[in-house]
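Exercise 7. Predict the structure of IS701 family transposase from Funiculus sociatus GB2-A5.
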Amino acid sequence: MVTPRREAVNTVGFIDNYCQQYYSIFEDVRHFEAFKYLHLGMLSEIPQKSLPKRAKTVGLKSGQSLHHFLRDALWDTKKIRGMRLWLTKRLIGEREIILCIDETGDKKKGKSTDYVTRQYIGNLGKVENGIVSVNAYGVVEGITYPLIFQIFKPKNRLKPGDKYKTKPQIAIDMIQELKEWGFKIKLVLADSLYGESGDVISCIEKLQMMFIVAIRSNHGVLMPPGSQKGYNRWKAYQQKLSHRPTETRYLREIIFGKRHRRRYYQISKTNTPDPTGDESWYIMTNLSIDLPPNVAQLYSLRNWIEYGFKQVKNEQGLGGFSSN
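Solution. The predicted structure, encoded as tokens:
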């Protein structure tokens, strides 16, 4: 005789309602309860959300059950992610998204965590011992939706069965997967790591998407013999900044011989036209628009996402040095 599965312990109404969507993924009701407790602890007001502190906040004697759930319990990560993407797609519906591809990293001591090694941490701007992930976000009507992330696996930390993929290769996988899910991507934004990848740009164009990507100042463009590089006049525009008043910025189009499908712009980082050195950045786009300043405004959405990601890390008590 099969013993009926007991009902899971209730937590908070909106968490129970959301997590119920994942109920069928967990064969053991205790694992489903741990799943709910993690959400409850994550949204609690405690400053640092370690497993022991989350456990104490939700009324557990220790964090052992939560630790077991994350490390040893049998549940399918792909099914969890699939359900979350399905719920996100259902919420967004047929609205078009601006897809932002970016990476983030965290410093970590030691190498007990998988794929931790000395590597370049983009948001720190230097090489540190840490872990890096490639992330895809969707922006819809000013709201940011986390979609997919994947841990970058350095060659020196690969485990048996792992296949090495560069960050651009990971980005391509993400774009293709989101397309298969039915997300309507009208524009892709990415930094120069992906903007300088011919494979990434080819993938975006093959899927008939628009893009705005950063490129290096020495980005190479093939030009017919006798052609010359030209610059249009600097144009002022108003740049929105996080927690600061709007400031004037400048941009100009760079034309290699003659204007092609892909267009190039130089944008100032300060309120002075004709910047020098590191005071400007460069972008490439296949977006046809009549008002060039819109290019800069659209691309700047990436900065708002990184700012929001920092807020989330701070809220979860992950803004400082991670010790494991």
